[in-house]
Design a protein that fits this description.
alpha/beta, Arc Repressor Mutant, subunit A, D-Maltodextrin-Binding Protein, domain 2, seven-stranded mixed sheet, 11 strands, about 45% helix, elongated, DNA-binding transcriptional LysR family regulator, LysR_subst-bd
């Protein structure tokens, strides 16, 4: 096997290791599945032992697979960074960054921080989604950067994570609403999902209880806030998202816990890509 062929095969092996499957790796690399499978067999032949075993409907790395990935990942990533740096950015071919975030974080935290990035000549393409959708997209290199409101259960060894900020959750209602007491309150709640994760966390930490089932679910935090403004119910929302409404007296905080209920938000990219100039530029702008 030539040196070039070895590098191509190792790159495919690393993609399979990071994405968890031949099909996903093929998509990420823009190769056919048979090509990636051939590369994998080639690397296993050189290694002299299996690098993956079947696990349910997928595959998982053997100890030899973990060891090889740890040995080559930094080197393969360094080569990809070098190639990426050589790609032209002039003559109308500007570098582009693909970024994903939840609706509310994108509107309130990400977009306002982007003007310096855009002024530098970078192009930014955004999409919305939650962590469960964004993490696989980062690992497949469909996204360069994701804003994650939760990292529990994510394959953190495959991600480069940076703490972005701690969001505070507040229980809000329309101005004039009385304080909320879960032991004697039957006012309806609105949430962006049936399980209302923000309200669930708030109720657990404040009272050791589960929140009431939502009277209204709308898959968009902006619409949830609009529902509260209209008097359709109460909600637990990030303070940064309702700060203007609170300051204007449109909404009011209905409970003040002894200790603020917070959640850590992280910026993520695939491990090994954090030093790419275009990714580093966006990280820097968001963290200012």
């Amino acid at each position: 096997m030539s040196t070039r062929a070895e590098l191509v095969a190792l790159r495919s092996f690393l993609a399979v290791y990071r994405t968890g499957g031949v099909s996903k790796a093929a998509d990420a690399l823009a190769l056919s599945q048979p090509s990636v499978s051939h590369h994998l067999r080639t690397v296993e032949a050189v290694a002299g032992r299996p690098l993956f075993v079947k696990a349910g409907r997928g595959i998982e790395p053997t100890e030899a697979g973990h060891a090889l990935a740890a040995e080559i990942a930094d080197h393969i990533d360094a080569l990809e960074r070098a190639v990426d740096a050589l790609r032209p950015t002039g003559d109308g071919q500007a570098a582009m960054v693909f970024l994903g975030a939840p609706h509310d974080a994108l509107a309130a935290l990400v977009v306002p921080a982007l003007p310096p990035v855009l002024a530098s000549g970078l192009l930014v393409r955004c999409r919305t989604g939650l962590a469960a959708e964004l993490v696989p997209a980062v690992l497949r290199d469909e996204l360069d950067i994701a804003v994650l409101t939760q990292v529990g259960g994510a394959p953190t060894r495959k991600l480069y994570l940076v703490h972005f900020l701690d969001e505070e959750f507040v229980l809000v209602g329309r101005a004039g609403e009385p304080p909320y007491d879960p032991r004697q309150d039957s006012r309806p709640f609105a949430g962006y999902a049936e399980e209302m994760p923000m309200a669930r966390r708030y109720f657990r930490e404040c009272w050791g209880l589960r929140p009431p089932a939502p009277a209204l679910t709308v898959p968009d935090v902006r619409a949830v806030a609009a529902a509260v403004r209209a008097g359709a119910g109460l909600a637990v929302l990030p303070r940064y998202f309702v700060e203007d409404d609170l300051a204007a007296g449109v909404l009011t905080v209905l409970h003040h816990p002894a200790k603020p209920v917070t959640n850590s938000i992280h910026l993520a990219t695939r491990r090994g890509r954090e030093n790419l100039p275009r990714i580093r530029a966006v990280f820097t702008a968001l963290l200012r």
